[in-house]
Every structure is written in C-alpha cells, then in structure tokens.
Specification:
The protein is an alpha/beta fold.
Length: 1185
C-alpha cells in the first residue's frame, strides 16, 4: 500500500487543479520559503480527516479555500483527492485502488467521498485506522511536530504507540461498550425503580379491584331492577296508548256521523240554492217578458199615434210646392263659397301666427338650454374655484413654512453675530495683553462648535428634505395606484370613454359622511351596484347596451337618472343611533345634485344605517320594508341578510383618493418648506465653515508667531479684523435673511390677499355668469310657448276644417237644389201614392187598437206571475238561512271534535315520544331493544335471584333462591338497596380490574427485562475485560518493540550515548504513561529539558523513527524535520530514512541538498503571483542518464 497521487483544487495556494504523482520510495518536495510546500502535507492531512484548523496552520476551517490574489478572484470551494494503491489489501475494502476526496464550500458545507460514493468522516477514519493510520496522524511529522513530541505528557506518548500499534480500534470498542454499559446501568436503575413502584402500587390496586368486583355484582342488580322498572313503565305507557287510540276511534266515528249530517245539510243547501237560482232566473225572465210586453205596448201605442199622424198628414193638401226654392238654394251655395274664401284668408293669417309662435317656442327652448348650460359651467367654475382655493392654501402654508425657516435662520445668525461680537471683544482683549506681555498664547478655534452646529443643522435639514421627498413619492405612488383602481371599470369604463350620455359612476358622484362609507357601499351593492354607471334616460341606456354588445367591452350595470320618483311617504322616527341612509349622502357637484342623487335617494329610500343590526331587529317588526345596514356592511331585511368581510369598494377608494390628494398638497408644502430650510442650512454651514477655516488659520498664525511680539500683535490685530469682517458678513447675512423674511412675509401677505380675493371672488358673480337665469321660469315659459303654439296650431286646423265645411255645404246646397227640382217633378206622382198610404194608415190604426188591448191583458198576467215568484224567492231565502245556521252548528261541532282529536293526537304523540324515549334509553343506556326488554324484563317474566359477590359468606345448608314474580314495589326497594350498597362502597375505580391485570403483566414483564439487563451487563463487563486484556497484550508487545528499536536508533544517532523508554506505572499497563530517558555520550543528564536544542530534536527523531520501525505504516510525511540538524547528524538521519524506505513510502519536505540526493522523485514548488506551481522530476532516471 502506498500513496499514488494527490490532486489539489482551490486548496490554500493551489488555485488551479494540480496533481502530484507518487511512487514507492522517497519523494522530496523542494522550493523556496513561502512557496506552498507545507500545503501539500496539510492537504494530505486534511483529506484524511483532520478537523483542527490550527493543525492546518489556519484560524478557521474555510481558511483552506483559496482566498484570491490581486490578479485572481477567490474561489468558492476547496477540494483534495487522494488516491491510494491498495494492491496488497491493507485497507479493508474490495478495491485495488482507493480514492478519498474531501470538498469544503465557503458557505460551510463539507463533503467526503470514497471512490466517488458520498460517505461520512467516520467511514474515512475507520478505513484508515486498520492500516495503522489513526486520528492523531502520527505518520505526519509536520513543522513543530518534534517540539510536540518533546513537550508531550507521558500519556500522550503512550497515545503515539497505541496509534501505531492499532490499539485505538480496541479502545473504541471498549468506549462503545462502556457507553452501552453506562446507558444500561441507567436503564437498570430505572427498571429497579419501576419494579419497586409497581410492587408498591399493586397492593392498593388489588383492594380497588376487589371493590370493583363487588360493585360489578351490585351494578348487575341495579341494571336488572332498572330494566324491569323500565319495561313495566313501557308496558303501562303502551296500554295507555292503546286505550287512547280506542277513544280516538270513537271520536272519529262521531265525527263521521256529523260529517254525514253536514253533507246532507249542504246538499239541501245546494238544492235550495239551485231552486233559488232557478226562481231568480224565472223571475228575471218574467221581468224581462213584462218589460218587453210593456215596451211592445208602448210601441203599439206609438204606432197608433204615428198612424194617426200619417193619416192626418196624408189627408192634408199637397205640399210639393212648399219645398225649398232651387234658386234660393243656389244663392245660399254662393254665400257658403264666399264664406269659405274669406276663411281661407283668415287661415293664412293664422298660419303666419303659428309660424311666429313656433319661432317664439324655439327661442324659449334655446334660452332654457342656454340656462342649463350656464348652470353646468357655473358648477364647473365652482369646482375649479374650490381647487384653486386648495392650491392657494398650499402656497400660503409654504410661505408660512419659509417664514418659519427664515425666523430660525435669523435666530441662528443673530446668535452667530453675538458670538462674533464676543470673539471681537476677546480678541481685542488679547491684543491688549499681547501689547504688554510676550507670554505664549494658546487656545482653540472658536468657530469649531458653530461649524458643528451648522453641520448638524444642515444634516437635519437634508434628512428632513429626504424624508419629505420619500413621503411625497410614496403618496404620489399611492395616489396613482388608487386612481388606477378607480380607472379599472370593465364595461362601465368603456361606456364612460364612449361618452354615451353617461353621467359617471354612481359612487364617484357621491360624498359620504366619514364612518358611513362601508354601510352606504354595502347598501348600494344590495340595491343596485356601487360601481353602476348613471345614464340620463332610457334611450341612453339602450344605446349603451348596444355599444357594449358591439364593442365586446364586457358587462355593466346602469341606473337611469330620469326614473320617475315614487310619492314620498312619511318617514318613521328612528332611535338615536340609527340614521336614514339618504341623510349621510351629499352630491359631489351640482350636476350630480340634479341627476344621480335623485335615483340614489330612490334606491336608498328604505335603508337605515345602524351601528349593529342585531340590536335594531325590532325596527323590522315596525316596518317590514326597511333595510338595516350596519357600519361594518352587514345587511338585514325581513326576508334576507348579507354580511361578512369584503375587499374595499369604490367608495372607500374614492375617499382614499381624496385623502391622498389632501396629503399630497400637505406633503408638497412640507417639501417646499424643507427645501427652503435646507438651502438656508447649507448657506449657514458654508458661512460657518469659512469662519472656522479662517479662525483655524488665525489660530495657527497666532501660535507660530508667539516668539515675535510685534508679529503676534499684528497677527492678533489681523485676526481681530478678520473676525470683524466675519461679523460684518454675519451682519450682512442677517440683513439678507431679514430682507428675505420681509419678502417671505410679503409673499405670505400676497398669498393671504390672493386667498381673500379668491374667497371674495364668487364665480357666480363674474361677468360670464352676470346674467341670472331662472331655470324654472324659463321651463315654464317653454311650456307656455308650447301651449300657445298648440293653440295656434289648433286654430289653423279649425279654420281649415271650417273652410272644408263651407265648401262641403255649398256642394250640398247645389246638390239639394238639383234634387229639389227633381222632387217637384216627382211630387205630382207622389200625391196619388199618398192617398193610397192614407187608406193603409187608417187600416193600421184599427189593427193597432186591438193589439193594444191584448197587450194590456198580457201585461197584467206577467205582473201577477212576477209577484208570485217574488214571494216564492222570499220563502226560499228564509229556508236557506235556516239551513246555513244548521250547517254552521254542525261545522262548529265538527271543529270541536277535530280539536279534540287533534289534542288527543298531540297527547298520543307525546305518549309515543315517551315510549320512544324509554325505548331509546333502553337501547342507548343498556343496549337492550324494546322487544327484548319486554320479553326478558317485562312484568310477566319471573325475577331471578341476585348473584353472590366474591367474598360474600354463603350458608351451605340454605336452599338455593328461586325466581319470584314481578312486584313493582319490591323492585323499587331492591333498586334502592342496591344503590345504597353502591354508595357504601364509595368511589369505585371501574378500571381497577383491568389496571390490576395490566399492572401484574407489566410487573412480570419488567422483572423479565430486569433479568435480561443484568445478563447483558455481565456480557458487556466481560467484553470490557476482554478488550482490556487485548489492549494490555498489544500495548505490551508494541512497547517492547518500540523500546528495543529506540535503544538501537538512539545509539546510532548518539554514538556512545544511552537512551531508553520507561513506563511510569509498569503495573498498570492500561493507564501507564511513557517517559523518555536520554543520555548523550559524555553527559550524565537524563532529563530532556536539560538537553540542548539539537539533542532534543534528535531524541524526538529517535522516538519517532523507533516507532516507525517497530510498527511500520504504509507511508510517512516529514516536513523539514532535519532543518535544525548539523551535517553529521543529518547524515545519520538520512541513513535511517534509507532504512525506512524499504518498508514504507516517504514524502519529505526539505531544503537540504543531501536529503534531495536520496530521493527517488523530486517535486519543485514555486509561487507565481500568489499561486503555487509544481514541477516534477524522477531522480533515478536522471541519475541513470
């Protein structure tokens, strides 16, 4: 087994991947100091599991990661891969070549791997421990290792031998066994305590179990008695239920009889009602016949009169010549045509009047429209007026802030001027002192504190300005976000953008009193939608729907502003904490007042805002149409409710926008104020800094000129002049500040005047709005103009109709004249016909007289028939009243019987409920069904005798008890006795039996476990004894070998000298330490501390070499172990190294040329810009060549 290769990547100074190939024999690594030679040894120790950062010459573990140079960035991890040739099977693993890798990340993570498989550090240590390479790494002799060996305690030296001899794995086994033994002792103690505790608890628990057995017997009697009493109650209730059902059957029979009588009475009632109906129909027919006969009689009488008149008329002379004169008719026709022509002229005048009326109506409508437009402009002007007032208020606040800043600056400059004046007095005094004395002056610049104060003021002003700017940016972002939230409206936004006579979102046109936003928004959502869009009329709504459909802009809810309002009703009086919703709403402008507010008032007419709906429910009992809305947005009506948590709606967003705009104005004023204060503070700091610089210069000049009295006086005078100049500048700055303050006051005054002027300026009083319009009067004028226009139009239409009537009359007269001429021609022919008709009339008169007489007789008969039917209807009505009274009486009886039956049904239902309760009680409490309860515990079943409890005395000669009949009183007595016995038992642990059994089983189990633990403890003690025996044997053999080798090695390194290893406690090989005794030739000292440095180093080398020879390891790493040796001792050490080469692989870090000469391979290490580079050379090939 030997090291085959080592790959370093990012480890210490090895920034890039570097691979060192090793072969059996001696490999030397050489190079200048600081080139990174020792890092190779550190890398091998680190990859084999070294955990101490100090052992790797670092402060913490991540120091092994390449830290970077001026030209190369630091790396994030370090990785070392060590390849070991395991052809001889020295490592306990089935591979001929083993690769161990370790990676450390700068974040602190670490990874190990064996042949590429992730593993633990323990796996690496166990793999290497079988080869004689332990955790202490005795095979690595680094810088300072020899000193550690020299200063090691005897116990530490024993550790070196144990590690080389492979004792550590036995010690690990012993330590593991001792840990198990310690844990086992704790478990054994715990088991003993538990067993003792269980034995202590078993006795009282046994008594509780005995009481529980007695209680079981008594509970059996209690259960049996209760079940029998329960069964008896159930049987009694079922018997009562059967009797009540029989009574119910009788009542139902009586009710059936009454139902029959009632049906008979109602049948008779229907018959009488049908007869009454028939009589009424007959009476109606008789009345109709009587009426018809009377009418026919009157008609015949009229016929008689007509016949008499006709006969009389026909007997009169011929009236043909009495007709209208055709010539006169023609003249009348001409007059009618003339009247029509005259009316035509009047009609034209009326049409002119109508045209004038139409123009006047249009003018009135235009004036009305202009008035409405002016009102809208006036509303907008009022809104702009209010906005301008807010801006002017912000300007005034800004001017006030500037004045405050100026006042602070004036105070500061006044204080600075006072300080300068004081310094002038001080300097004048010093000038006087310098004139009479030459003592060295000392002091400190007087402007240092002023400079620091000015700087502090400037920093505070900058922080205030920065804070104000951040607040302004935050409020601007918040305002933009809120406005974007308002802009997201879906279909409503599309309609607003389309300008389809939309009046805006309902919630945007409203202003709500503080604290009521949630309630009003919830009410609007309940009634319509707080985000609904208000439109002017139905036509606008229809157009908006068409636009949404055509543009696919989504859906939108709209309310129509011109909806007719319902008649206002009286509002009920509300409690003190309740308010009508319409009372907390006001319009945002005049336009909303005239349009949207009306429909909102209509929607919220019945809405009442209350603190909590639960405390005002009685309002719904007073008026079921009310809608209660709480301040949290909960809604309650008579038929529905709504509530819960919801996101902030549009009303909250609108309120937040208004608050954000107000905050924006305030913060902008604060930004301006802080900016002015910052400017003043920076100016003051510059002045103070200049004064400080000058003061320091003056101070330095004064100190440098102390030797020369005259120069000192001149300098003091110069300083005095400088301070005076500074005072003048401060005075000037003060005057400028005061001037600026006057300007700021003027600006503030101007702002106040502008505000007053703005407040005095009423937009409604401007020339643009100087003309006042009475909108209602103009509307009335429009209506009046329209009425006048309508009257004029009616007059024109009437004139046209009259013209048409005159023209028609003229045509009719002309036609009549023509007809009259024809009539005169026909009159002669008609005379003969009239004579014939006169004869016929005479005959008709005779016949009509006979018919009238017959009709008189028929009318008399019909009158008699009508009288008879009237009397019959009266008698039937009386009979019908009697029948209805009988029906009512029967109905009352049936209802009473129905009530009794219903009451009995309720009683039976309660009885059945009690039966069901008893059955449920039996089933739930005792697990016995109703049938099983009656069959096994009913009163007909014999009662078995009580059981005998364990421990009760029983008379063996007494006869066995027999079952006995059920007697309720005896069972109640039996139950009371059993319950009394249970009470005498006291508190019974129902789980005592189970707990006692479980505890007995647990006690047995613990006893078994206790015995097992005792046996295991004995086994572990045997293992510890065996390990101790093995450790003693291995250590004794290893110590004997090391002691033998040490004697020989020491004699070779110290010719003529004597050295040996001595056990501190020879009788205790398990704990003994090892002392090193060394006596060089010619000296009597044996203590290491009395040897020289070189002798001590050679002694340490002798100890290590003897250890290597006694228990060889596959390889050894030595880091400059021969650095302190002279040439003679170096030659002796090289001889030992050549001997070790035969059994082990040596990796030596050296500067010695003689050491390099014995190497089989040589690696040269150099440092370039902080990064280590490696050059290799096989020395044997070089020698052969």
């Amino acid at each position: 087994m030997h090291l085959k290769s080592l790959t370093l990547r990012g480890f210490k100074s090895f920034a890039s991947a570097t691979t060192l190939e090793f072969e059996p024999g001696i490999t030397c690594v050489v190079g200048p100091n600081g080139s990174g030679k020792s890092n190779v040894v550190d890398a091998i120790a680190w990859v084999m599991g070294e955990q101490g950062a100090k052992s790797l010459r670092g402060g913490k573990m991540d120091d092994v990661i390449f830290a970077g140079t001026s030209g190369k960035a630091p790396l994030g991890r370090a990785e070392v891969i060590l390849t070991i040739d395991n052809a001889d099977g020295a490592l306990n693993i089935d591979y001929s070549e083993v690769t161990i890798s370790r990676t450390l990340f700068r974040s602190g993570g670490s990874e190990y791997a064996i042949n590429g498989e992730p593993c633990r550090l323990l796996d690496v240590q166990e793999l290497l421990s079988d080869s004689g390479i332990g955790r202490e790494m005795h095979v690595i002799v680094g810088q300072g290792r020899l000193d550690n060996v020299l200063h090691a305690t005897p116990e530490d030296r024993r550790g070196f031998i144990e590690e080389a001899a492979g004792v550590l794995k036995h010690r690990k086994r012993k330590e593991k066994a001792l840990r198990k033994l310690e844990a086992m002792n704790a478990n054994l103690t715990r088991l003993q305590d538990l067993t003792h505790e269980l034995r202590r608890q078993l006795k009282p628990l046994g008594r509780q179990a005995e009481v529980a057995r007695r209680a079981q017997v008594i509970q059996t009697d209690v259960r049996d008695s209760r079940l029998r009493l329960l069964a008896d109650d159930l049987v009694i209730l079922q018997a009562e239920l059967d009797r009540e059902e029989a009574d119910e059957a009788l009542l139902r029979t009586r009710r059936s009889e009454l139902d029959g009588q009632l049906a008979t009475a109602r049948g008779r009632e229907e018959t009488v009602e049908q007869a009454t109906t028939d009589d009424a129909s007959a009476l109606a027919q008789v009345n109709e016949l009587h009426t018809r006969l009377t009418a026919l009689r009157e008609r015949y009488r009229g016929l008689i009169n007509l016949a008499e008149d006709r006969a009389r008329h026909l007997h009169e002379p011929d009236a043909a010549a009495n007709g209208a004169d055709p010539e006169q008719l023609e003249a009348q026709a001409q007059l009618a045509l003339a009247s029509a022509a005259q009316l035509s002229e009047e009609c034209k005048q009326l049409q002119e009047t109508l045209k004038n009326r139409e123009e006047l109506s249009a003018q009135a409508e235009q004036r009305h429209a202009d008035a409405l437009s002016q009102e809208q402009r006036r509303a907008r002007a009022l809104s702009q007026h209010r906005e301008q007032a807010v801006r002017l208020q912000g300007a005034r606040d800004s001017a006030s802030s500037k004045i405050q800043a100026r006042d602070a600056e004036i105070v500061r400059l006044t204080e600075q001027l006072g300080d300068a004046t004081a310094r002038i007095d001080e300097l004048a005094r010093k000038v006087d002192e310098l004139g009479s004395a030459t003592a060295e002056s000392s002091g400190q610049p007087l402007d240092e504190l002023a400079k620091h104060a000015a700087k502090a003021n400037r920093d505070e002003a900058r922080e205030a300005a920065s804070q104000s700017s951040r607040e302004a940016a935050g409020i601007d972002a918040r305002l933009d976000a809120l406005r974007m939230s308002l802009a997201e409206g879906g279909g409503s936004a599309a309609l607003e953008n389309a300008q389809l006579h939309a009046l805006g979102v309902v919630s945007d046109n409203l202003r709500i009193e503080a604290g009521y936003e949630t309630a009003i928004e919830a009410a609007l959502q309940w009634s319509a939608d707080a985000d609904a869009l208000a439109v002017a009329d139905v036509a606008s709504a229809v157009a908006a729907l068409a636009h949404l459909r055509s543009s696919q802009a989504g859906r939108a809810y709209m309310v129509i502003a011109d909806t007719p309002r319902s008649a206002p009703g009286g509002r009920a009086n509300l409690p003190a904490d309740a308010r009508w919703a319409v009372d907390v709403i006001r319009p945002s402008d005049e336009v909303a007042a005239s349009s949207v507010l009306n429909v909102v008032n209509e929607l919220l007419a019945h809405v009442v805002v209350v603190p909590q709906v639960a405390t005002f429910v009685d309002l719904l009992d007073q008026d079921s149409s009310l809608v209660l809305v709480s301040a949290d947005g909960d809604i309650l009506t008579r038929s529905a409710a709504s509530g819960g948590n919801a996101a902030a709606g549009r009303l909250h967003i609108v309120a937040a926008v208004e608050q954000a705009e107000s905050d924006q104005q305030r913060i902008r004023a604060a930004v301006e104020s802080t900016a002015a204060a910052l400017t003043s503070a920076e100016d003051a700091f510059r002045l103070a800094n200049d004064a400080d610089v000058r003061a320091k210069e003056e101070f330095a000049a004064a100190r440098s000129s102390v030797a020369d009295h005259n120069a000192a006086v001149a300098l003091a005078t110069s300083r005095l002049d400088g301070v005076k100049a500074e005072a003048q500048r401060a005075q000037k700055a003060l005057e400028q500040a005061q001037t600026s303050r006057v300007a700021d006051e003027a600006a503030l005054q101007q702002a106040n005047e502008r505000i007053e002027a703005h407040q005095a300026l009423d937009p409604a009083e401007t020339p643009e709005f100087s003309e006042k319009f009475d909108v209602e009067a103009l509307r009335a004028a429009v209506i009046e103009a329209r009425q006048v226009e309508t009257q004029a139009r009616l007059a024109v239409r009437t004139a046209e109709e009259r013209i048409a009537a005159y023209e028609s009359r003229a045509k009719d007269l002309q036609a009549t004249a023509s007809a009259e001429r024809e009539a005169r021609a026909q009159a002669l022919a008609a005379a003969a016909e009239r004579r014939r008709q006169a004869k016929v009339a005479t005959e008709v008169l005779a016949v009509a007289d006979g018919a009238v007489n017959q009709l008189e007789t028929a009318v008399a008969k019909s009158a008699a028939r009508r009288h008879h039917l009237t009397n019959l209807a009266a008698s039937r009505s009386q009979e019908l009243a009697t029948l209805r009274a009988t029906i009512r009486e029967l109905t009352d009886k049936i209802e009473k019987l129905t009530t009794d039956v219903h009451r009995d049904e309720i009683a039976r239902a309660e009885q059945r409920l009690r039966v069901e309760q008893l059955e449920t009680k039996s089933l739930e409490e005792y697990g016995v069904g109703p049938e099983e309860l009656i069959n096994e515990y009913g009163p007909q079943v014999m009662v078995p005798p009580s059981a005998i409890a364990a421990g009760d005395e029983v008379d063996p000669d007494a006869p066995a008890p027999e079952p006995y009949p059920f007697v309720r009183a005896e069972q109640e007595k039996r139950l009371r006795q059993a319950e009394k016995q249970m009470a005498l038992l006291g508190r019974v642990n129902p789980l005592a039996l189970e707990e006692f059994t479980a505890m007995e089983e647990r006690h047995t189990f613990l006893n078994t476990q206790l015995e097992d633990l005792k046996r295991s403890r004995k086994d572990l003690l045997d293992i510890v004894a065996e390990v101790d025996e093995r450790v003693q044997q291995v250590f004794a053999e290893a110590f004997a070998d090391v002691q033998r080798e040490f004697t020989g090695v020491f004699e070779r390194l110290f010719p003529g000298g004597e050295g040996r290893l001595v056990l501190t406690e020879p009788n205790d090989l398990l704990n003994t330490g090892i002392e090193v005794e060394a006596r060089p030739a010619g000296k009597k000292v044996k203590r290491l501390s009395l040897l020289s440095g070189g002798e001590r180093s050679l002694t340490a080398v002798a100890f290590l070499v003897s250890l290597f020879k006694a228990r060889p390891s596959p390889f050894y790493l030595m880091d400059e172990v021969e650095a302190a040796l002279d040439d003679v001792n170096l030659g002796r050490l090289i001889g030992l190294m050549e001997e070790l080469r035969g059994t082990s692989q040596l990796l030596i870090i050296t500067h010695q040329k003689r050491t390099m000469e014995i190497a089989d391979a040589l690696y040269g290490v150099t440092m370039r810009e902080g990064v280590t580079a490696v050059i290799s050379q096989r020395m044997r090939e070089l020698v052969t060549t």
